[in-house]
Amino acid sequence: MTAPAICLNPPFRAEHIGSLKRPEILLRTRKAYSEGRCTLSTLRAAEDAAIQTAIQMQRDVGIKGITDGEFRRHIFFEGVFDQLEGMKYIPKDVPAFKESKTTGVPSYVCDAKIRRVKPFYISQFEDLKRLTRSDEHKNLKITMCAPEWFHLRHGPYSYDTSVYQNDEEYFADIIRAYREEIADLYAAGCRNIQIDAPLLAFFCDQKMLQGMEERGIDHVALFDLYCRVYDTCLKDHPADMTLGIHLCRGNFKGGRHWSEGGYDRIAIKLFREIAATTYYLEYDTERAGTFEPLRWLPRNKSVVLGLMEDKEELIARVHRAAEIIANGEEPRSLEEALNQICISPQCGFASHAEGNPVTEEDVVRKLALVVETAKAVWPDA
């Protein structure tokens, strides 16, 4: 088999999902700021220092799609709904929506027309550019909250019906906001966006689907709606922009997961009805199912396999995935199929600021293994 084509644009052969373990000094400084014991400028300086260290770590291990580790966020989905006009913050001691019990976590619901009156992630991208070399700028990755995030959480209580009469009206303004943000990120030089969408994996989980049915929710129609939302958000994007969707089963405090089940139920629509260019898919445990759904991957898209085995097992699984893609709905050569694959850890290392049960040294080892494995499979890694 001849060598795959050289991978010059994201996603790269060795990827990571975005969030990195926060150093203790950053956590202490953020706590001091929240308690009024330091200034915003002190916090920003601590963030800059931590991000510079994280950038150098990514360079040292060989990661090309550099992120800021989400060090300027408390949790991965910050940045969109907390910035939109028309969204109301619901603190943890207030019911999240009508006729419900207190959830114990903050949230957002819509109580007025939604408008993007300020950018979501432009400042984070500009800051990342400022801390990196000019030759790295086109590869810098921005991670972004999913457009359906609070809708799936709150269902019919996501918005005031005096503001929007139905889901289509509600999402039309959200779509407009996402398209504006993506266009502005592109104008700022961003060419690599990853939308974090763990809730889409709920549609892989039989227990989740059964729960929806018991509440009278048509989960087939709901998933179709979300596919249309993503497709409209992403379609007509510039050809030199990578737009990826990241699905996982959850990786919250302590590594807790939310859902299980393979991609079989959603693969066709996910791969063929959404104008994404790549998919970051969890594949490290049995809860994610088999590689069989990859048979629906089109020729013009790529997949980043989230794996966590030892090197030899990783290599074997990459080749198994390539065989399934090659013999899939659109048959292709094994070389072509292998060229559509990249690898990464299963998820980020700190979806929440407190982070997963790993050390900073663990993060380096895991990323180094991903890079080492990628180089063993692809000469261009």
TrEMBL record:
GO biological process: methionine biosynthetic process
Domain annotation Cobalamin-independent methionine synthase MetE C-terminal/archaeal: ranges: 17-374
UniProt-listed InterPro entries: Met_Synth_C/arc, UROD/MetE-like_sf
Coiled coil: none
Pfam families with a match to the protein in the record: Meth_synt_2
Example of a GO MF term: 5-methyltetrahydropteroyltriglutamate-homocysteine S-methyltransferase activity
Signal sequence segment: none
Matches recorded under PANTHER family: METHIONINE SYNTHASE, SYNTHASE, VITAMIN-B12 INDEPENDENT, PUTATIVE (AFU_ORTHOLOGUE AFUA_3G12060)-RELATED
Name of the protein described by the UniProt record: Cobalamin-independent methionine synthase MetE C-terminal/archaeal domain-containing protein
Lineage: Eukaryota, Fungi, Dikarya, Basidiomycota, Agaricomycotina
